[in-house]
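Q: My labmate handed me this sequence with no annotations at all. I'd like to see what the chain might look like in three dimensions before we decide whether it's worth expressing. Could you predict it?
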Amino acid sequence: MTKKIIAVIATCACAFCMFAFVGCGSTSDMMGVVQNSTPESYYLSSLNSLMSEINNSLDGFNDTVKNKDIDAMKKTLDATQNTIDKINKLDVPENCKDVQAKYLDGLNSMQKCFSDYIQVFTDQKEGKITNEVLAQRVAEIQKSYNSAMNSLKEADKLASSVLS
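A: Here is what I predict for the chain of 164 residues:
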């Protein structure tokens, strides 16, 4: 049962990594954005770079989950939070405020999910929970994860509409 739960967590982390890599637009879109040099294009380009930075931070998360390396998971979360803080500090043009809010909503929710995963593994390691409780908590985290993914998808759509 525990291997199945770890596989679910690893799949979630992998899916987030792939989504974060896509960020708010394709590389070719972003190249055109930089050439346009409007405040919106500069913002979206900066956002795309930071989303790539998050992806790089999360690259090893699958291995840390598989190995139940709680310390490495925490380091990954710290690195990701530092990047989210940078996104929070971006100078956001007025017509990109919804984009910013949606990305931060999704990223903060995602960060909470990963924190919850760390707590679940910590509780399991310390013998505080049964496998049944572990499965229940992972299912709850999965629901939150799905919601976070939806927010990030909506943010991508909003970002694309700014490019149009």
